[in-house]
């Protein structure tokens, strides 16, 4: 791309009517990859849903009609965007190139890659974060209180330090769509989670005061081939249980249960089933247990723990001041957005997930540079996503506690997380990972860029390193930012 393409784009944009708002731009149409999912009932079986996925707003090029980025080295361009209304008049947000962003779908299968080779031949981190979208261009609101959720996952290419994540956040269904943000969920806006991330836009509106955006988060799976966990993170009074009261089989003492060749054999796909069980068995009761089991080769895998892989309300003391498991259940009852990501962690090497008491990895092997050098192909595959009545989404030939139903899932499942202080923090800060900047921008430079500052992109000659603890994240071919 570079100047030539940029000026072509700029020329093309210049002849278009100026849209009102950081409204959808027209240089890249937004085409959501379709992803078949199923909603199930005990009596009616599973019905296919018309769903697709949408890339998060922050990964997109936001620019003026002439092609100037609306974000600068000091964050948002305060001239173009002194306030939401002016920003909306000046700036456009572009559609995403999903393949380049590391996201592909086929039928009911979603593949997400950590690294992609750019047109310049250089492999760099893309680390996508995406959401499940309905045919009405709003997020699908999953109401899982008293229900279960199942999917197949292939984590065989995720080494120590990598995290394939599937989780729920209580985002606004429209992504905060409003007259200044006509795209909303269709362009992936409105992200929030239990780490209360500070973002340039909050619920679709320009964030001019640096406030964080907290919301209830339920991590159904944070995992690689060596370790895994599941973790509720309830919130109350604009604060959240950031560490969460999760379950990770390894940190619970079952160190030979999950991994390549182990009981849950992560060298092959398996099914993960998660149940949100209420005190009275209804979809309106109080959430008292989160249960997890796995299916592989058609068979339910017994838990290593005598009581099963379970999070109980009583065991969730860290969440007590944030509404506890019951508060998590209320959010699940209201409806939450399904998010997927793949990322790694330059700051902590994902040790909270897979090292020390949490897993078999060394403290250093999860370093992103190590992953890039040895596992540039690392990718997570999610498929056969289903939700609905307990016992309706997964079927096995024997053993487990789940009842049979009309659905046919073949593999097995598993997952758990431990109380990982950082688990959610990583998710929030996020999902984005330190990405390598395109080749033209990787020249060493003595200076370091500050938070929000530009650190790469076509034609960028400024600093390419970020001041700690920020990492340079590629937003598009023209812009990378210290986040
Ligand atoms: C999916 O779209 C098709 C075609 O528009 C429609 O017939 C079907 O009812 C939709 N399914 C659901 C679950 O909405
Ligand atoms: C997000 O924006 C939508 C649309 O404007 C609004 O209805 C909703 O209340 C907002 N949510 C929060 C938490 O501010
Ligand atoms: C920041 O701005 C938002 C939107 O105007 C407002 O709701 C929030 O209370 C403000 N927060 C602070 C800390 O000023």
Question: What would your notes on this structure say?
Answer:
The chain has 483 residues and is mostly beta strands. The protein has six helices and 35 strands. The strands form ten sheets. Strands 2, 3, 9, 10, 15, 25, 26, 27, 28 and 30 form a ten-stranded mixed beta sheet that branches. Strands 4, 13, 14, 16, 19, 20 and 29 form a seven-stranded antiparallel beta sheet that branches. The model is unreliable at 1-21 and 397-445 (pLDDT under 50). Bound molecules: 2-acetamido-2-deoxy-beta-D-glucopyranose (3 copies). One 2-acetamido-2-deoxy-beta-D-glucopyranose (NAG) is lined by residues 209, 211. One 2-acetamido-2-deoxy-beta-D-glucopyranose is lined by residues 172, 174, 176-178, 203-204.
Topology record:
Blueprint: H1 2-14, E1 23-24, E2 37-41, E3 45-49, E4 52-55, E5 62-63, E6 71-72, E7 75-76, H2 84-90, E8 92-93, E9 103-106, E10 109-113, E11 115-117, E12 123-125, E13 129-133, E14 141-142, E15 147-154, E16 163-169, E17 201-202, E18 205-206, E19 217-223, E20 228-233, E21 235-236, E22 239-240, E23 258-259, E24 264-265, E25 270-278, E26 287-296, E27 299-301, E28 309-312, H3 324-334, E29 336-343, H4 351-354, H5 368-374, E30 379-389, H6 423-430, E31 448-449, E32 454-456, E33 465-466, E34 472-476, E35 479-482
Parallel strand pairs: 1-8, 2-30, 23-24, 31-33
Antiparallel strand pairs: 2-3, 4-13, 5-8, 6-7, 9-10, 10-30, 11-12, 13-29, 14-29, 15-25, 15-30, 16-19, 16-29, 17-18, 19-20, 21-22, 25-26, 26-27, 26-28, 32-35, 34-35
The chain binds 2-acetamido-2-deoxy-beta-D-glucopyranose (NAG) (3 copies).
């Amino acid at each position: 791309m570079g100047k030539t393409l940029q000026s072509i784009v700029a020329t093309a944009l210049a002849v278009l009517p100026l849209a009102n708002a950081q409204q959808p731009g027209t240089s890249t149409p937004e085409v959501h990859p379709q992803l078949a999912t199923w909603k199930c009932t005990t009596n009616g079986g599973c019905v296919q849903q018309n769903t697709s996925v949408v890339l998060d707003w922050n990964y997109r090029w936001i620019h003026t009609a002439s092609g100037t980025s609306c974000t600068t080295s000091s964050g948002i361009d305060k001239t173009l965007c002194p306030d939401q209304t002016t920003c909306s008049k000046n700036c456009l947000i572009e559609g995403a190139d999903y393949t380049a962003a590391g996201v592909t779908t086929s039928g009911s299968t979603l593949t997400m890659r950590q690294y992609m080779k750019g047109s310049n031949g250089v492999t760099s981190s893309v680390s996508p974060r995406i959401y499940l979208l309905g045919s009405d261009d709003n997020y699908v609101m999953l109401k899982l209180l008293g229900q279960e959720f199942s999917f197949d996952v292939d984590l065989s290419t995720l080494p120590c330090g990598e995290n394939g994540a599937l989780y729920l956040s209580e985002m606004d269904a429209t992504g905060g769509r409003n007259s200044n943000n006509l795209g909303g969920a269709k362009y992936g806006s409105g992200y929030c989670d239990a780490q209360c991330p500070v973002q340039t836009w909050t619920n679709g509106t320009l964030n001019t005061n640096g406030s964080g955006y907290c919301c209830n988060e339920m991590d159904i799976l944070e995992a690689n081939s060596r370790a895994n966990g599941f973790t509720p993170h309830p919130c109350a009074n604009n604060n959240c249980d950031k560490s969460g009261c999760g379950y990770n089989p390894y940190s619970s003492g079952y160190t030979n249960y999950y991994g390549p060749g182990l009981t849950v054999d992560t060298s092959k796909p398996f099914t993960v089933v998660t149940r949100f069980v209420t005190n009275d068995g209804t979809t309106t009761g109080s959430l008292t247990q989160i249960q997890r089991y796995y299916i592989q080769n058609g068979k339910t895998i017994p838990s290593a723990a005598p009581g099963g892989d379970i999070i109980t309300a009583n065991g969730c003391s860290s969440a007590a001041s944030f509404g506890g498991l019951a508060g998590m259940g209320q959010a699940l009852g209201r409806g939450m957005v399904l998010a997927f990501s793949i990322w790694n962690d330059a700051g902590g090497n994902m040790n909270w997930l897979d090292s020390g008491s949490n897993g078999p990895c060394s403290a250093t092997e999860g370093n992103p540079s190590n992953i890039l050098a040895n596992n540039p192909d690392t990718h997570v595959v999610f498929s056969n996503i289903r939700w609905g009545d307990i016992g309706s989404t997964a079927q096995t030939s024997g053993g487990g506690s789940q009842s049979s139903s009309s659905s046919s899932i073949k593999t097995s499942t598993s997952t758990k997380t431990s109380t990982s202080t950082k688990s959610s923090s990583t998710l929030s800060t996020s999902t984005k990972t330190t990405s390598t900047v395109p080749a033209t921008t990787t020249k060493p430079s003595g200076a370091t860029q500050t938070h929000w500052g530009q650190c790469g992109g076509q034609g960028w000659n400024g600093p390419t390193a970020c001041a700690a603890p920020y990492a340079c994240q590629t937003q598009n071919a023209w812009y990378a930012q210290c986040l």
